[in-house]
Amino acid sequence: MRSTEDGWLVEEIKSGVLGADDLDLCRLQIAHAEQCAFYCALLHAGGERVAGGQVVYASVREAAERSHAIDWDPAAVRELLMYRAEQLIARILREAGYARWRARTAELLRLPFAAPRPDQALMLRDVASAAEDGRELLCSAPTGTGKTAGALLPMTRAALRSNGRLFFVTSRVSQQELALDTLRGLLVGESDAGIHTSEGRLSDSDRTLAGESAPGLAMQLRAKERSCPLEVMRCVDGVCPYITDFAERVESSGILAQLTHESVVSADRITEQALADTLCPFEVSLLLAGRSTVIVADYNYVFNPAVYLRRFFDGRADPALRRRRYLIVDEAHNLPERARGYYSPKLDLRVLDSLIADCTSLAVAPLGYAKPENDVFIRAKCLFEEFRAAFRTGYERFEE
Fold first, then answer.
1. Which fold has domain 95-343?
2. Could you tell me where the DSSP H helices lie in 277-345?
3. Residue 394 and residue 347: Cα distance in Å, rounded?
4. N or C, which end of the chain is more exposed by having fewer CB within 10 Å?
5. What is the value of pTM for the model shown?
6. Rounded CA separation 15/11 (Å)
7. Rounded CA separation 172/153 (Å)
């Protein structure tokens, strides 16, 4: 806040690494404007004089900023606040409906054949017991046993009954596709033709337990870089057309309701529909994951400390996402090698060269930084150059 002759000027400052040219492309985001308006209204309600509000987009890389004045009215802001509260209450009630829907769905899942194979029956029993007791279970069985269905059926039932969430992670895309096909089969068992539709979706009468849009059963999560339609990812509101005003546009598009009614949704299907609505496929996937009971993905999204799904695993996660967690690690013998890569430091000389060039540019370019900041870039440049020299010396010795 800044004091003026007319009262307090409220500033909501959003900083980022964009340059001055990119800041010119940034439009005022609705969520940022609402945030600033709420601050203005709170000050006004406390008896303070408010001269106005503005959202400021500032660059931490260059001495540049762009300001956007906002219009606010105490009565309008109060009405908006009540609307947001009603949305929150509706969300809580909807989540309660989802829980009832999941419990009902658990009893509808069946194997898509008359009876399990002998070894598969044993696996179904042991996995169900482990899921119920919260124990770890290591399964080793030959090809043809039906391990995927033997693990997915009892674990999915347990997740649905407890209103939990199951993560099926593997190292290969082909195994993810097998898991999705298996889940579709669990929904369309031949013995349950009267319960399920011919398209493999739960009937509308069952879905009404959760309201107008039921939660999905399962979805596949694909890496962001593989989902992005742009040659270079620029994941900034106002710059990337696929995430600009994302929250408002995803709600008005109805894409989540459309995809969840398909019950089991592949990454290709999510990308297809998201791009048709000019929405970021990865962000749509994350929202869809919040509604789904089973998330099929790569090991990275559970085990990689850099990219794991924090919204589902961190204690600070959205309360609506804090559900009991179940995990299937497919082909777990591949995990140790992957884990060694997660925790083994690597030095890419190309990245190092790029950092040195950036530090050199920032240290000498007239960007308005004070001398101490320039000194920081100079010291960083020297440090990176030392790293590069040491690495190359060690590599030459290794070659000898």
1. Rossmann fold (3.40.50)
2. 281-291, 300-303, 310-313, 335-343
3. 12
4. C
5. 0.71
6. 12
7. 21
